[in-house]
Design brief:
The protein is mostly helical. It has one domain. Helices cover 77% and strands 0% of the residues. Helix 2 packs across helix 5. The longest helix has 23 residues. The chain is elongated, with a radius of gyration of 21 Å.
């Protein structure tokens, strides 16, 4: 990947980093960082609607075995893998607060409710989506 495509990728990643990072860095703790990350990315897509389609166009037009494609995908994956950290931090905070609430007077026994609650996948398997049931 050379020339305009490389410059475009660099600019899109620069804008995304400048847009998202300060919002996430300003948020206190895992759950707040995760929320800030999601909100910042959503706002980024709204404010720069052509950036993501441009990256997709570049990736899909590079041959699968092209080294630039692998390099670009690796850069995007490394950049986006940070959300895994925010998710794990938020999960840890949630798990700790559930453990703390058990055994306190008036606190719900969340461990019992969590075991009985079906997963989203189980619900989806039982109930076809509204869109799947509606014609055309």
């Amino acid at each position: 990947m050379a020339g305009p495509s490389q410059a475009l990728v660099a600019e899109v990643l620069r804008v995304a980093t400048a847009y998202v990072s300060p919002r996430v860095d300003a948020a206190p703790g895992g759950p707040a960082k995760l929320r800030a990350y999601i909100e910042a990315h959503t706002a980024l897509l709204a404010d720069h609607p052509n950036h993501l389609p441009a990256l997709v166009e570049i990736v899909i037009n590079l041959p699968r075995d092209h080294t630039d494609r692998a390099e670009l995908l690796a850069r995007l994956e490394a950049r986006n893998s940070v959300h895994t950290t925010y998710i794990r931090q938020a999960q840890a905070v949630g798990a700790n607060s559930r453990r703390r609430s058990n055994g306190r007077p008036g606190a719900p026994d969340v461990s019992a409710t969590d075991e009985k609650r079906p997963s989203h996948g189980a619900i989806a398997a039982r109930e076809p989506s509204r869109l799947a049931r509606q014609p055309g």
